[in-house]
Structure formats: structure tokens, C-alpha cells
Amino acid sequence: MPGYDAKTRARRWRALDMGTHKVFIVADVKRIKCAEHGVVTEAVPWAFHGSKFTKSSSSRLLFRPFTSQKAGLSADADQLEDCWNHHCQSQKVKEIDPDKKFENLEVIGVDETSYRKGHTYITTVVNQQTGEVVWAHDGFGKNTFEKFYERIGEDCASQIRMVSGDGARWIKNTVNENSPQAEFCIDPYHVVTWAIDALDRMRRRIWRSL
């Protein structure tokens, strides 16, 4: 596309941290004149259009229930929440990448989470062997999760060996119907969360009795 401005503008995108150091990608980008979309910023291969975060960091943040402890981003909760809200509101993700391939998809994790007040949910599926989010869709429940299986097809569904989730019945039932050969696992994040909640309830009961 032809350039619109003679000057470029430096932009930066938040990437996954390197150890304790925050990482940003900085690049000069131009504005171009598109016959279909008008004047827009030129595309970059490492980020979605309109996002301030790289594709890798967006992917990790989108599946935060499984990766919040290993996201490679700052552990600051408010910052993670800001990243999360910005990503969901700006992308309105139906699928992370339309060209994403589902070959060798054998171990997956499934979870839903709300990203806006009023219980606006999104369901995500992650490849547990690579750590990448391979599919996401607005809503949650069996009808939403069925769309994932419609997308990958029967051949790919038959290759799935293990599925991790939070114990929700709609996840397990959908897996049993579409990937009966797969072993269902409770993911470590929820196991630890349930254990901590149980200890808190016990602590409160003991405190009241004393």
C-alpha cells in the first residue's frame, strides 16, 4: 500500500518478560492509505492490529487461569488485569489466529473466564504442550465448547489424549462425547485453589469455635 505520511512514528509493544526485566519491542511504523480501510497504521508481524502487546503476551494473558503463575509477565495483579481487559476489549477474539493449525493437538486445557463487568465470558482452549492458546470464543458452556470441536473436526478430535479443566460438568461431558479416548484431568491451578479455600473455611470454623 502507498504511504500516507512522510514521517514515521515510534511505537512500542509489551512482550513477555525476560527474568525480572520487562521487555518491549520498539519500532518505527508508517501510516498507509488502504483502498478498503482508509488511512491505517501498517501491520507488524509480532502483534495484532490495535494491540499494545505482542501476540505471545496476548496469548498468555488470554489464558490467565492456567498461566497466571508462569505468564512471563510482571506479577503485578493490576497490570495483568489492565493487559487482560485491553486485549479482550480491543480484539473481540473469536479465534486467536484464523490460520492457526490444529495438527498434533494432543494435550489441551479448557477454561472460561469473565473479562468485563456483567459476566461477559470467553472460553479458551490452550495447547498444553506448547503453552499457546489455539482457540477462543465468546460465552461459555457446552454449546460454546462444541464450537471448538466443530472447528477442529473429527480427525483432530480423535488425536486428543488428555484434557485439563476445572471440573465443570459441561467441559467433561463435551469431551466425553467428542473425544471419548481422552483422559480428563483436573488442572493444578484449581486443585491448589480449592485446597486453599478448604483451609480457609476450616480456619474460620476453628476461630469461631474458640
Task: Give the secondary structure arrangement, pairings included.
Layout: E1 9-18, E2 21-29, E3 31-34, E4 38-41, H1 55-62, H2 64-67, H3 77-91, E5 107-116, E6 120-127, E7 132-138, H4 142-157, E8 162-165, H5 169-178, E9 183-186, H6 188-209
Parallel strand pairs: 5-8, 8-9
Antiparallel strand pairs: 1-2, 3-4, 5-6, 6-7
Helix pairs in contact: 4-5
Key terms:
6 helices, extended, two-stranded antiparallel ribbon, alpha/beta, 36% helix, 5-stranded mixed β-sheet, 210 residues
Question: Over the alpha carbons, how many angstroms does the gyration radius reach?
Answer: 20 Å
Q: What structural category characterises the helix and strand content?
A: alpha/beta
The profile of the biggest β sheet is:
5 strands, mixed
Mean pLDDT: 78
Strand order of the largest sheet: 7-6-5-8-9
Calculate the terminal CA-CA distance, rounded to whole Å.
Answer: 74 Å
Q: What is the beta-strand fraction?
A: 25-35%
* Overall form: extended
Helix content range: 25-40%
Provide the low-confidence segments as ranges.
65-81, 92-96
Please report the number of helical segments. Answer: 6
Give the helices and strands as they follow along the chain: EEEEHHHEEEHEHEH
Counted beta strands: 9
Folded structure, characterized:
The chain has helices at 55-62, 64-67, 77-91, 142-157, 169-178, 188-209, and strands at residues 9-18, 21-29, 31-34, 38-41, 107-116, 120-127, 132-138, 162-165, 183-186. Strands 7-6-5-8-9 form a five-stranded mixed β-sheet, with helices on both faces. It has a two-stranded antiparallel ribbon with strand order 1-2. Helices cover 36% and strands 29% of the residues. The termini are far apart. The chain is α/β, with parallel strands linked by helices and 210 residues long.
